[in-house]
Every structure is written in C-alpha cells, then in structure tokens.
C-alpha cells in the first residue's frame, strides 16, 4: 500500500475528469501523496481506446514512481532495434544508446494503471461526464451535480469540456496524414525470413504514399500503424482495402488479411492543441486536453504521464494550490512544448522516413527523469 497519509490533518480532495493515461497517472500519484481522489470517466467502463503504444524512459520512470512498472513490463516488448525502411530497404537501425523504451498494447498499459489505482484507493465513477469546471474549485457533472475540491484535474482528452468551459486561449490544427491503428496476431512464422522482432517503420513514397509502422507488442500481438494521406480514399478506407496494402507490403500479407477482418478499425487524423496556459485557479489540464501532439516522436502519453506525475509531486507539500499550479507549469512545460513542435515538424515533412531521426534533440523528452527531476540519459 502506498503512503497515502503523508499530510497531517484533513486530506485534500482532487476531482479528476478523464480515465485515460493522463487522468489515471494524476489520480494514482495524488493518492500516493495523501490526497483523496475521485476519478470521473464518461464511458461506462474503464477501457483503453486505440491499439498499441510506445513508452520511453520518461514514461517508464513514471510507472516506476506509480508502482506499476513491473506489471507493465510483464507482457510488453523492447524490440532489438527501431528499424526504418524506405521502399523496402533498411536505412537505419536505432538503439538509442541503451535508452529504455517499450512497446505494448494500450489495453495492457491501461489495465495496469487501473489495477494500481484500485490498489491505492482511487475512487472511480464511470458514466460520469464532466461538463464544466470553475477555477474556484468546482466540477460540474452531466447529471447536474456540482463537486467542490481543492484541485480539479482536466484529463478529458483532446475535446476537453473542462478546458472549453473555462475558455483557455488555444490554437488547434490537424495534419494532412492520418493513420489506421490495429492490433493483429503476430504470425511471425508465416512472414518468412526477416528480423520480425524489430520495430520496422516501413515507408513507401511510390507508387503511393503508404507506410506501416510494424510494432511487435509481445509474442502474440502486433500493433500496425497504417499511414496514408487523408486525400487517398483507398489508403484511408476502413476496414482496410486489403488489395492496396498487400500490393505495397506483400511480405505482411498474413497479418494484413487479419487486419482486413477488423470492422471496428478507424482512420484518425493527427491533432495538435496548444494553450496559452495549462492552469486557472484550482484547475489544471494534463494530457491531450492541454497539449495534444502529432505522434511522430511517440510522446503524447509519455509527456502526459510526466506532467500529471509532476503535478502530483508539486501538490504534495504546497499550502496554496492556486500559487503552485503556475509554478508546476513553468517547471515542466518546456519539454512538452519542444516535443510537440518537433513532432509536428516531423509529421508535416514525413521526416522519420529518412531514418536515424531520433537525434539527441528528438529524444529530449524521452531522456527526462521525472523522479530525479533531471535529464538523465546517458546516465
Ligand atoms: P485520452 O486518452 O483521450 O483520455 C481521455 C479520457 O477521458 C477517455 O477515457 C475519455 O473517455 C474520458 N473523457 C473524455 N471526456 C470526458 C468528460 N467530459 N468527462 C469525463 N471523462 C471524459 N503517445 C505515446 O506516448 N506513445 C505513442 O506511441 C503514441 N502513439 C500515438 C499514435 C497516434 C496515431 C496518436 C493519435 C497518438 C499517439 N500517442 C502516443 C498519443 C497518446 O495516445 C495521447 O497523448 C494520450 O493517450 C493522451 O492521454 P489522455 O489521458 O490525455 O487522453
Ligand atoms: N510513432 C508511433 C506512432 O504510433 C505513430 C507515428 C510514430 C509510435 C503513428 O501511429 O509518425 O505517425 C507517426
């Protein structure tokens, strides 16, 4: 059991809106620092959306701080290399000088966080949609109920109602490319010769722009990120158009046949949101509510988890939440802003196709250690 009684006297209360990776991280970390925490999820169950996810050293360190790392490592995978292909030829194999990274299904990560939240005593409310927040410390639910708290955390994703009810100044835009994300069986033995335990980012620019980010999550599950421009009707069609994908990636045919069976597939465009500030009064925004980013550097959830964890660190000892929130933002925001800008740039220019693009600058967010509060790689 975590140290849930650090602060003498009456425990402070946080209401967290949103049960994604950001909200769960904030809830567990606040609870570990002695807060009473209630988490509101608008869906009827606590479930991850989407297919697979990459976490790097920064996100893995958060999991360590939350006491969930072992659980997440068990059943996930670190590929031997992060390989990049251009027109089916290998152009780079990156290993990041030993920087820890991990690939997993989203449900695997989400389930581990929900288990941990239950263990430390986070109170869950499902079917509980937040519709507005007040900087004075109130959260209004769809039912009309108004809850008072010392801290309101808006972790309700890119369409955040907590954010929009308060009126933060924001820029939002969507990129030209989008992606179909799926989990399929690995079927490694049917793929023929090849280093199929690697991540392989397979780019093709002709005859059409089509890319598959091949990402093994464990022995059974394979995450496929299938990218095509939104303007390409066949590449962006769901369920996938088997013929166009097999034509470009014939060696993946067994997996693509499985992908074509998935009726629930979605094509998503990348969205970016940038706010003038992440906090007003007693309300803090974390995750995609505050800073949705293009996925090129695979850091949206990683940054969300670092920022949510850091929020709880900074709230552990303060007497004034209102004074501490701007300091939290000032302390932690720079890394996310730079990562978001570079991810947008990489996405717009399809830079990852060149290979060897995980430069030290690109790995800044990944190298951050939220427990020691320093950039700590190489050690
Ligand atoms: P969400 O995951 O959107 O969670 C929000 C939660 O709040 C949901 O459960 C939702 O149901 C709930 N909710 C919404 N509105 C309300 C409300 N009003 N009241 C109550 N509950 C509400 N990041 C990485 O780190 N690594 C990757 O490899 C990676 N790959 C990506 C690939 C793609 C194609 C994309 C688009 C993103 C990727 N990301 C990745 C980014 C990552 O998915 C997001 O940044 C992360 O999931 C955001 O988490 P969140 O908790 O802020 O939001
Ligand atoms: N990296 C990851 C990812 O999921 C995507 C991208 C890069 C892990 C999209 O699926 O460049 O779009 C990308």
TrEMBL record:
UniProt keywords, alphabetically: Monooxygenase, Oxidoreductase
Domain FAD-binding as annotated: residue spans: 16-318
Gene Ontology terms for molecular function: FAD binding; monooxygenase activity
Listed Pfam families: FAD_binding_3
Key word Membrane present: no
Domain of life: Bacteria
Coiled-coil regions listed: none
Listed PANTHER family: MONOOXYGENASE (PTHR13789), PUTATIVE (AFU_ORTHOLOGUE AFUA_6G14510)-RELATED (PTHR13789:SF309)
UniProt name for this protein: Tungsten formylmethanofuran dehydrogenase
Organism name: Mesorhizobium sanjuanii
Organismal lineage: Bacteria, Pseudomonadati, Pseudomonadota, Alphaproteobacteria, Hyphomicrobiales
């Amino acid at each position: 059991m975590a140290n849930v009684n650090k602060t003498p006297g009456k425990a402070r209360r946080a209401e967290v809106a949103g049960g994604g990776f950001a909200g769960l991280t904030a809830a567990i970390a606040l609870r570990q620092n002695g807060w009473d925490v209630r988490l509101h999820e608008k869906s009827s169950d606590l479930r991850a959306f989407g297919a697979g996810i990459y976490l790097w050293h920064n996100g893995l360190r958060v999991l360590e701080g939350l006491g969930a790392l072992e659980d997440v490592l068990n059943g996930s995978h670190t590929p031997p290399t992060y390989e990049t292909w251009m027109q089916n030829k290998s152009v780079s194999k990156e290993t990041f000088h030993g920087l820890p990274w991990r690939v997993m299904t989203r449900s695997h990560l989400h389930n581990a966080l929900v288990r941990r939240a239950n263990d430390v005593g986070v109170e869950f409310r499902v079917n509980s949609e937040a519709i507005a927040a007040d900087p004075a410390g109130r959260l209004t639910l769809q039912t009309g109920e108004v809850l008072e708290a010392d801290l309101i955390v808006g972790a309700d994703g890119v369409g955040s109602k907590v954010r929009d009810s308060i009126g933060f100044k924001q820029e939002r835009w969507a990129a030209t490319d989008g992606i179909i994300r799926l989990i399929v069986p690995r079927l490694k033995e049917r793929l023929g010769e090849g280093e199929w335990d690697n991540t392989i980012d397979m780019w093709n620019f002709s005859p059409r722009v089509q890319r598959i980010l091949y990402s093994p999550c464990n022995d059974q599950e394979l995450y496929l990120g299938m990218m095509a421009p939104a303007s390409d009707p066949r590449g962006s069609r769901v369920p996938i158009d088997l013929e166009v994908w097999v034509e470009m990636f014939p060696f993946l045919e067994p997996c693509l046949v499985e992908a074509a069976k998935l009726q629930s597939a979605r094509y998503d465009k990348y969205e970016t949101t940038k706010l003038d500030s992440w906090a007003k009064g007693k309300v803090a925004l974390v995750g995609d509510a505050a800073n949705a980013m293009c996925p090129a550097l695979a850091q949206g959830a990683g940054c969300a988890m670092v920022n949510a964890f850091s929020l709880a660190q900074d709230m552990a000892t303060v007497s004034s939440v209102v004074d501490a929130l701007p300091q939290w933002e000032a302390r932690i925001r720079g890394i996310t802003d730079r990562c978001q800008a570079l991810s947008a740039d990489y996405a717009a220019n399809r830079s990852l196709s060149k290979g060897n693009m995980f430069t030290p600058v690109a790995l800044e967010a990944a190298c951050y250690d939220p427990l020691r509060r320093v950039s700590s790689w190489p050690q």
